[in-house]
């Protein structure tokens, strides 16, 4: 399955999004939180993101879903075409769509497309 890493400035926010994703997509989907800094502050840590990528990488690729600003820049440092891809998608909706699609065994390109499609899903 494609791994999904939620990259946020906040460790708490990243953990909660992952909890929501697991609740919807299931515990078997490889998803990890990479939030905050090593000392628990607000920010983004390249080391934490790298560790999360290693944690969820099952050989089918990894999708990084950043929240904003420097998390996007940090995630882009890890991009490897066809292996590690950054998704420019809504943070929560994109992470959920990616994980649900990953859980069906779809390839990285389809997981990215599903996350991207979350941008157009209206709530009302």
Task: Provide structural commentary.
- The chain is an alpha/beta fold and 124 residues long.
- The protein has five helices and four strands.
- Helices cover 45% and strands 15% of the residues.
- The longest helix has 15 residues, at 11-25.
- The protein is globular, with a radius of gyration of 13 Å.
- It starts with a strand and ends in a 7-residue tail after the last helix.
- The mean pLDDT is 97.
Largest sheet: 4 strands, parallel
Number of separate strands: 4
Overall SS class: alpha/beta
Given the structure, what is the number of helices? 5
**Which residues sit in consecutive blocks of at least 5 with pLDDT less than 50?**
none
Key structural traits:
alpha/beta; four-stranded parallel beta sheet; 5 helices; globular
Summarize the structure.
The chain has helices spanning 11-25, 46-56, 70-76, 91-103, 108-117, and strands at 3-8, 31-35, 62-66, 84-86.
SSE arrangement:
Blueprint: E1 3-8, H1 11-25, E2 31-35, H2 46-56, E3 62-66, H3 70-76, E4 84-86, H4 91-103, H5 108-117
Parallel strand pairs: 1-2, 1-3, 3-4
Helix pairs in contact: 1-4, 4-5
